């Protein structure tokens, strides 16, 4: 165990977060996301039993968001015709605001199938047991300045 590191971050996940460089991206995926098929060229990590919000909060404790792009955080857009509410997005924005002064302004949206294509190029995809729909979130790493 380490001091100051959220216990939810496994040694495997900490290693991957540390290995990632500036502009590398990761996806924290909900339980419906096709992690293994999207992550054929990525490191995949299982965080079974956990939801996206608690993983997001823990990661942002140690992971700087990119300051050189407008939206270092991206969500999967809801498909037209899908009548799905996404209150979890508000939770994400609250969590991001705790760790980044841009808060919700750091968050963008990517069309569903474009999100899948972007996910295929990510360094890491984290599988969770999140039940909320359209709860996938992509983070782009920045630089540590302090």
UniProtKB/TrEMBL annotation:
Catalysed reactions listed for this entry: beta-D-ribopyranose = beta-D-ribofuranose; alpha-L-fucose = beta-L-fucose
Keyword Transferase among record annotations: no
GO biological process: fucose metabolic process
Domain of life: Bacteria
Secretion signal span: none
Gene3D superfamilies found in the cross-reference section: RbsD-like domain
UniProt name for this protein: Fucose isomerase
Biological source species: Wansuia hejianensis
Lineage: Bacteria, Bacillati, Bacillota, Clostridia, Lachnospirales
């Amino acid at each position: 165990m380490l001091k100051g590191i959220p216990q939810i971050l496994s040694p495997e996940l900490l290693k991957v977060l540390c290995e990632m460089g500036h502009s590398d991206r990761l996806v924290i995926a909900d339980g419906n996301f096709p992690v293994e098929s999207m992550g054929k060229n990525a490191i995949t990590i299982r965080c079974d039993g956990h939801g996206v919000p608690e993983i997001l909060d823990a990661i942002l404790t140690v992971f700087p968001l990119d300051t050189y792009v407008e939206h270092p955080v991206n969500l999967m857009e809801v498909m037209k015709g899908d009548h799905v509410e996404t209150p979890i997005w508000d939770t994400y924005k609250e969590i991001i605001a705790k760790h980044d002064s841009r808060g919700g302004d750091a968050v963008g949206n990517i069309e569903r199938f474009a999100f899948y294509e972007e996910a295929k190029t990510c360094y890491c995809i984290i599988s969770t047991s999140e039940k909320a729909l359209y709860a996938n979130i992509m983070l782009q790493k920045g630089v540590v300045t302090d």
